[in-house]
Amino acid sequence: MSDNNRERIILLMAALLPFISIFFSSYQFIRDHVHTLGFPIRFLYYYGATFPEHKYQLFTWKVFTSSVSLQMGLYALNVVLIYVVLALLNKRFRTNISGRQGR
Fold first, then answer.
1. Kind of pairing between the strands at 34-37 and 68-70
2. pTM
3. Residue-wise pLDDT tens digits, 70-90
4. I need a labelling partner for 10 at 20 to 30 A (CA). Which of 33, 76, 82, 102 fits?
């Protein structure tokens, strides 16, 4: 696989992982009727006294437009952090494999 394709896959994974983390993280209380979701930095704010029955309902039109705030700056920071970690792991992993193949 070429380096360019590998970087695209890492970027795609970095962009998707924060959204996937919403379904695995728990609501964190901020103040009255305000909760956050996301990992590693919480970027989705939910405003409401009761939670939706399922987290995927956060993305329905009615709930998303009335009770959800997506903080794009925090989401972008998540993408950058995850991208850096994945790129470093990829570099480390590729270096170890390259060193073993030469033996």
1. unpaired
2. 0.82
3. 999 999 999 999 999 999 999
4. 102
Query: What residue type is 9 in one-letter code?
Result: I
Each as own residue / partner, the long-range contacts of residues 68-77 (CB below 8 Å, 24 or more positions apart, any chain) are 68/44, 69/44, 69/45, 70/43, 70/44, 70/45, 71/43, 71/44, 71/45, 72/43, 74/38, 74/41, 74/42, 74/43, 75/18, 75/38, 75/43, 77/41, 77/43
* pLDDT at res. 42: 95
3-state SS, residue 2: coil
The identity of residue 58, as a single letter, is L
CB-CB contact of 58 with 79 (8 Å): no
Between CA 102 and CA 33 the distance in angstroms is 59
